[in-house]
Amino acid sequence: MLRIQGLLKRFGALTATDHVDLDVRPGEIHALIGPNGAGKSTLVHLISGLLPADGGSIELDGQELINQPPHQRVAAGLSRCFQITSIFAQLTVAENLLLAVQAHHSNSFRWFKQRDKDAQLKTLAWDLAQRVQLQERWNTVAGTLPHGAQRKLDVALAIAASPKLLLLDEPMAGMGPAESAEMLELIEQLRRSDAGRMAILLIEHDMDAVFQLADRITVLVYGKVLAQGSAAEIQADPRVQAVYLGQEEDAHHPEPAAQQAEGTV
Length: 265
Ligand SMILES: Nc1ncnc2c1ncn2[C@@H]1O[C@H](COP(=O)(O)OP(=O)(O)OP(=O)(O)O)[C@@H](O)[C@H]1O
Ligand SMILES: [Mg+2]
What we know:
Blueprint: E1 2-11, E2 14-24, E3 29-33, H1 40-48, E4 55-60, E5 63-64, H2 70-76, E6 78-80, H3 93-105, H4 114-131, H5 147-159, E7 165-169, H6 177-193, E8 199-203, H7 207-213, E9 216-221, E10 224-230, H8 231-236, H9 238-249, H10 254-263
Parallel strand pairs: 3-8, 3-9, 6-7, 7-8
Antiparallel strand pairs: 1-2, 1-4, 4-5, 9-10
């Protein structure tokens, strides 16, 4: 569904994305992992269009996006979470969700009477609140929500457009164990409730979460794909183990360990 080929991004002398090939299948949770500075966030920015690429191809359902501006990629079916910055803090959860569904669906109801249109939009907004388990916060002002609930609202805004692919860059960052567990549950729930229509590309450092959630995993090291496969294949891959074990054993000097691992490719 998403097919990336030969993707290239340079920052001066540094090649942050080095001829990356990656494909995401419909409905799968695809995790992107790798050490700090491996180029995970850069790759997500290239996909969403936040950063221009220096070469390669990004196709969504056969449509080339590489030169498209971000809003056209959204129209093509991409959506990403912006880590709370897309939330209107002074508005309630309900108002935030209504604005999001109105932005994406109002055209489908343009022949409806105003009252029916409002009712339809409210139903869609309520469905979203249910999908991210925020029904009980319906009338809460978004800015007063706890951090974890704000992240859930952010996810709801990102899926309001019914995207084909949702990009999540460290959705559990800054969360305590209870909030992390809820977000993990939410991501699993999204997959189940969506009946395999929406795929998720997930960047996450917590390996337990990754192995629990991901159908397939791509490992990036120094901007290059080190390995790509099922969670079981990646877990058993000695090259991947070298990168991660090296980091744990020598937490203060991750660089030599990662280089060693790359040398084994
Ligand atoms: N705007 C930029 N200008 C210059 N260099 C950049 C820029 N953005 C990222 N880089 C560099 O590109 C490399 C990849 O960075 P990126 O943020 O994509 O890594 P990451 O895998 O997301 O890391 P982390 O796990 O720490 O979030 C790093 O060496 C980083 O310093
Ligand atoms: Mg990052």
